[in-house]
């Protein structure tokens, strides 16, 4: 259920809010230092949110680029899908490594560097162009679709899965329950940790 702050947000606002949350989780991971329990929790939270966010964009946002922005939109969507693939490949490797090791930290930093460049392009170029075409009310309705879609998509990286609907949607619906089962046996930040992180980064509570 959307909070009061989310009810009137545009699609661009919804995507940018995700970006800010992902950044805050990475900040908390780095801040955890030698606390391996906290590092594991924040790493799981970070991977969980990136996976959901990427699937939400691929199912809802990128088809809008292609629908409303013609060849330019198609090129934007293909570039952004390639960016996501580069991130997913690295996240998949991270899941097979030991949290807190030097190699893990290095690959996590590399992953976030790739994602950061992707985010800058989306926020400064791609999303503003799309917003101009959607208009206020359509943008709000697509923000609802984006948030809703994230509730049903995989929560782990699947580099070999399709990145375009309808195939991504079908595979996601089959994969998501297995991911959620894994989530049930994984450690995540407590509600108190999440709320504290939001306060520190001035993020709205969900």
From TrEMBL:
It comes from the Eukaryota. Residues 138-168 are annotated as: Disordered. InterPro entries: Hemerythrin-like. Residues 13-130 form the Hemerythrin-like domain. It holds the Pfam family Hemerythrin. Gene3D superfamilies: nmb1532 protein domain like. PANTHER family: HHE DOMAIN PROTEIN (AFU_ORTHOLOGUE AFUA_4G00730). This is Hemerythrin-like domain-containing protein. It comes from Amanita muscaria (strain Koide BX008).
């Amino acid at each position: 259920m959307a909070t009061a702050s989310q009810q009137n947000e545009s699609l661009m606002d919804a995507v940018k809010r995700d970006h800010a949350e992902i950044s805050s989780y990475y900040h908390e991971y780095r801040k955890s230092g030698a606390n391996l329990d906290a590092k594991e929790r924040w790493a799981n939270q970070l991977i969980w949110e990136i996976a959901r966010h990427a699937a939400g964009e691929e199912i809802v946002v990128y088809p809008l680029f292609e629908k409303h922005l013609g060849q330019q939109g198609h090129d934007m969507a293909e570039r952004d899908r390639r960016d996501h693939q580069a991130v997913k490949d690295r996240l998949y490797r991270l899941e097979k490594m030991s949290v807190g090791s030097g190699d893990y930290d290095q690959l996590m930093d590399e992953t976030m560097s790739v994602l950061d460049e992707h985010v800058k392009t989306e926020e400064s170029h791609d999303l503003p162009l799309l917003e101009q075409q959607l208009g206020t009310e359509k943008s709000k309705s697509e923000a609802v679709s984006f948030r809703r879609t994230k509730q049903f998509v995989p929560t782990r990286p699947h580099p070999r899965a399709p990145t375009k609907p309808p195939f991504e949607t079908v595979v996601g619906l089959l994969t998501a329950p297995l991911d959620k089962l894994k989530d049930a046996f994984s450690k995540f930040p407590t509600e108190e940790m999440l709320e504290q992180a939001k306060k520190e980064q001035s993020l709205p509570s969900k």
